[in-house]
Amino acid sequence: MELLKAIYQRRAVRDYSDAEMTAPLVQELLRAAVQAPSTMNQQPWAFAVFHGRARIEGYSRRVKAHLLATTNPMFGQDPRIDQYADITANLFHGADTIVVICAKPAPFPAVDDCYLAAENLLLAAHGLGLGSCPIGFARSWFNRPDVKAELGIPAHCEVVLPVVLGHPSRPTPAPPRDEPEIACWHWDD
């Protein structure tokens, strides 16, 4: 797939079919993710992979309970509060696989490098006809020390971004995008 076409067509998929992800597909996506640039080639990323619809649905219930318990009403209600409280809502959109991108301790800031790896993973998934969706609001649950210990995520790793993966059930339409806002442009001829 042509790179610019992939960038323009990739969407956050929030509706997945029953088709199963395979371990080789996930491994291929992880190999693409680690091709991302990183500061001083430190490659500070690590990946936690979780597969299985029942497992993911269980995580969804637990993340929702965590979000309901930790949403601070002093700062206004989270606009997703109804989704957190809905027992039928799956925060992972029915996907059967989650890749949790983690930052290992590194001499230079690692989180930015992990986001670059995430973008590679998202584009690679799209290029292979798969769907993906970053689930940033699940990060706080995955970063809990008790959850890390239970799931096998090393304590020294910081969870940066959970990403769901699967086979889209239907095409996802493109939301409108504004033209780039140029804050400043100094162009010497």
Explain what this protein looks like in three dimensions:
- The protein is α+β, with helices and mostly antiparallel strands.
- It has one domain (3-71, 83-166): NADH Oxidase.
- Helix content is 37%, strand content 14%.
- The chain contains seven helices and four strands, in the order H-H-E-H-H-E-H-E-H-H-E.
- It has helices at residues 3-9, 23-33, 53-70, 81-85, 111-127, 139-142, 145-151; strands at residues 45-51, 97-103, 131-134, 158-166.
- The protein has a four-stranded antiparallel β-sheet.
- The longest helix has 18 residues, at 53-70.
- The radius of gyration is 18 Å and the shape is globular.
- The mean pLDDT is 94.
Quick structural gist:
This protein is an alpha+beta fold and 189 residues long.
**What CATH first level would be assigned?**
Alpha Beta
How do the strands line up in the largest sheet?
1-2-4-3
Given the C-alpha coordinates, what overall shape results?
globular
Identify the CATH homologous superfamily.
NADH Oxidase
Radius of gyration, Cα only, in angstroms?
18 Å
> Separation of termini?
35 Å
Structural class: alpha+beta
In total, the number of domains comes to: 1
Low-confidence stretches: none
- Shape-level CATH architecture: 3-Layer(aba) Sandwich
The fold-level CATH name is NADH Oxidase
Summarize the main sheet. 4 strands, antiparallel
